[in-house]
Fold this protein.
Amino acid sequence: FAGMIGFISMTIAIQYLPISIFNTIMMTAPFFISVLSYFILQEQLHKFEYLGMIISFVGVLILINTKAESNELFKEYDKYFMLGIVLSFVEAISFGIVQVLSRKMK
């Protein structure tokens, strides 16, 4: 079910975002996999992993904001642009869910 949600989100998000922004958000999937592994699989994370995850996620948010402000599409279609960003995060989270649950099935 999560895979289907992710695929639908990806298909819609690509229509409203430049591929560079979509791909940047999609690369946050390892962040969500780590967070979900902590809660679902009870895997332990070290202090440096927490720090690295926070720094990388903040970096992605800064990149998205910078690209959004410089993009003409953002000025013309503000709500659709934000919809694309939200759906891209939904896709990354869905990908993380699929990866963690498939590992749990082993």
